[in-house]
Amino acid sequence: MKAFVTTISAAALLLLATSSAPAGRPAADAPCKGQIHANPGFERGTTGWTAGPRIVVLGDAARPAHTGRAYATFAGLDVTRTDLLRTTVTVPADCDLTVRFWVRTTTTETSRGDYLNVGLAVTGIPPKTRFSLAFDGGSQWRQYAMSTGTAPTERTATASFVASETAGNGVTAFDVDDVTFTLS
Ligand SMILES: [Ca+2]
User: Fold this and answer.
1) Between vectors from CA 14 to CA 5 and to CA 28, what angle results, nearest 5°?
2) Predicted pLDDT at 16
3) Shortest CA distance to 36 belongs to which of 77, 74, 89?
4) For residue 31, how far is its CA from the centre of ligand 1 (angstroms)?
5) Contact 19, 13 (CB under 8 A)
6) What is the CATH number of the domain that holds 88?
7) How much distance in Å is there from the Cα of 14 to the middle of ligand 1?
8) Confidence band of 15 (pLDDT split at 50, 70, 90)
9) Ligand 1 center to 99 CA (angstroms)
10) Average pLDDT in the 87-93 region?
11) Is residue 169 a part of any domain in this protein?
12) How many domains does the chain have?
């Protein structure tokens, strides 16, 4: 795993070194269009994300990513703990932002002890949990979506994934991939 992470980092550095900055892109009249996160599928590790110490990004042939090689996983350890994965984007005035993401759940849990809360905090709106995904969400990748709505001013939007696990009832791993931030 360590070797893989090193490879990813090297690849990320290479990308940084070879791609020039998007110079001259006007910020003022950004169109409400396109996917705006630089690392939606974790192919560059946790670049662009705030990740807790136990969130790892894996490339595992036995547990393939939704797309690409990597995904974020809240690995089940059967201990009582909470882990956070979070990122923030800017939503231009008069734009709507739709956050789409894929989750896969692998569990040996026998009670409702483990869950993944997905939230969206938007400037001017109290933070809100949009999805509370339980341990029995299924072992196939499944897509979810949440939106900010529009506003006349520029805002920030923070998407957060908070996994909670309790010890003693079994192990749950929540995998997350392809978290896209699309303006419209
Ligand atoms: Ca991926």
Assistant:
1) 105
2) 37
3) 89
4) 26
5) no
6) 2.60.120.260
7) 18
8) very low
9) 15
10) 97
11) yes
12) 1
Q: What is the mean pLDDT of residues 126-139?
A: 88
CA distance 91 to 123: 9
At 157, the amino acid letter reads A
Distance from the alpha carbon of residue 85 to the mean position of ligand 1, in angstroms: 15
For residue 15, being part of any structural domain is answered with no
Question: Is residue 127, in this structure, part of any structural domain at all?
Answer: yes
Give the domain extent around 64.
Answer: 31-183
The answer to whether position 164 is within a domain reads yes
**Span from the CA of 58 to the centroid of ligand 1 (angstroms):** 9
Q: What percent of the chain has pLDDT over 90?
A: 54
Q: Print burial letters for 66-81: b (CB count within 10 Å at least 16), e (below 16).
A: beebbbbbbbbebeee
168 CA to centre of ligand 1 in angstroms: 31
- The C-alpha torsion from 36 through 42 and 44 to 46, rounded to 10°, is 100
Instruction: Check whether 3 has a pLDDT greater than 50.
Output: no
Output the CA 43–ligand 1 centroid distance in Å. 5
The rounded Å distance from CA 18 to ligand 1 centre is: 21
Residue 176 Cα to ligand 1 middle (Å): 8
Weakest-pLDDT range from 26-35, 67-76, 141-150, 153-162: 26-35
Q: How far apart are CA 38 and CA 45, in angstroms?
A: 11
- Distance, CA 153 to ligand 1 centroid (Å)? 32
